[in-house]
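Task: fold both queries, return tokens.
Query 1:
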Amino acid sequence: MEKYKKFTFLKQCKNTLLIAGLILVVGCAPTVNYIGKNYNPTENIDIFLDTNDVKKNYEVIGKVDGVSGILGSSYQDIQDKIVQKAKEKGADAVILYNMEQRIIGSTSSSNTEHRQWMKSTTTSSNNVTEDVLHADFIKYIP
């Protein structure tokens, strides 16, 4: 019976660590929210930062928001995820624009010290943010 309890405990610890690790990985990874048309996947994607840089005729096939994970991702990580999604959706190019930082919550704390004749209160607050990168997926028109 004692061996069984030890085995069960170790199994629960292993499962808990696995779930915690999965949450950490998913929380760090950027996500991409896409709305638009789907075409056959493409291999090569052109990346533009301004519509004036696109020298070919094109149509916008979709819009995307790349969002950092809750624990944060770099804009480069977000861009890489957007390009990966563009390939999956069959885009020929991506126009990146409007980097922003959204406030998704806030935290605050307060500490009060009482001394014989003095009362002192320290308050601090911080915003919880996520980085967002917007993009258009385009398809060249022959």
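Query 1 returned. Query 2:
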Amino acid sequence: MAKISTYASTTPEATDLLIGTDAGSSNATKNFTVQSISDFAALGGYVYPRFNVVATSAATSAPSAGDFVLISIDNHTCTLPTAVGIAGKVIGVYQATVPAGPTNITIDTTGAETINDTATKNLASQYSKYMLMSDGANWIIIGD
């Protein structure tokens, strides 16, 4: 898998050039286009999303698609946005601190939406995390 440099533009075009290194045996610098990365993803390759890191010690949070929430408090509820209309968008939720007692971090959905067919998920301990992706109607866990 290649390491791609950060792209500064908010609206890259298919022919825009990115520079990265080939993670194969050569580790050589190579050029990539936005289109070649899209083709790679379409063939089943995984292109890691760029997250907006949100640190919180409040009792609640309401992340947006593309957020990675770092929670540093017990008794927290993280309410996901509606999954409708944002298929493929990813949110990460992470318990960052050592809890003083039992951890009570709840990941909640909007309305009747679900996370892997359940209404909520809980983070049980420090370093617990979920990577969630919208399927356009509900949330699915793609990593924990």
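Both queries returned. Flag for query 2: The chain has a mean pLDDT of 74.
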